[in-house]
Amino acid sequence: MNMELSRRSFLKAAGAGVAVTSLGALGFGEAEAAETAHVRPFKLATTTETRNTCPYCSVACGIIMYSDGDVRKGETARITHIEGDADHPTNRGTLCPKGAALKDFVNAPTRLTQPRIRRAGSATLEPISWDEALDKIARAMKDDRDANFLLANEKGLPVNRWTTTGFLAASATTNETAWSTFKVVKALGIAGFDNQARV
């Protein structure tokens, strides 16, 4: 590319560069950043801060959710902002693209907020209460364990195994929660146990 540059054009460009650099050196370049840092807390001053864990992968990044509406006063809370938790040891305030888009996931109109069940012979899912869902899960587990629990193997050795049900644990948990989950699952005799982090 052949570019014609006159002496006058060169001096204009150089003068403009010197002026911009001088303004930055005098501190005007940081004025906008300082103003932004000063105004930012006001954006979140009237919101409720809640710490949580990102639900996506097994890294278990810490997040801070900000919501409008005080639940204690009977108002409906609505999440308005989500950011990485700088105090969290896993991610130290950073989030991947999926984590950064969590607000859209949480506020999506298609997001499931209650359990659903497909009744026998039905082609559609219908909403049920958490109590009913947990009762159904507990009843199905109890019935299956009673029917299929192995007290001893073919040699007569005690094994206390339940091989017809498996358990998939969540990966975004603390070590203490993972330990407790493992102990409960093994106490039930479930042999098929895995974790989302490995899968």
Describe the structure.
The protein is α+β, with helices and mostly antiparallel strands and 199 residues long. It has six helices and eight strands; from the N terminus they run ααβββααββαββαβ. It folds into two domains: 45-106, N-terminal domain of TfIIb (Single Sheet); 116-195, no CATH class. The chain has helices at residues 7-25, 31-44, 97-100, 102-106, 130-148, 175-188, and strands at 48-53, 62-68, 78-84, 116-117, 126-127, 149-152, 158-169, 190-195. The two termini are 54 Å apart.
Concise structural overview:
With 199 residues, the protein is α+β, with helices and mostly antiparallel strands. It is 38% helix and 23% strand.
Question: How much strand?
Answer: 15-25%
Low-confidence segments, given as residue ranges, are: none
Major sheet details: 3 strands, antiparallel
Shape: elongated
> End-to-end span in angstroms?
54 Å
Radius of gyration: 29 Å
* Total count of strands: 8
User: Number of helix segments?
Assistant: 6
- Rounded mean pLDDT score: 84
Strand order of the largest sheet: 1-2-3
Could you give the order of the helices and strands?
Answer: HHEEEHHEEHEEHE
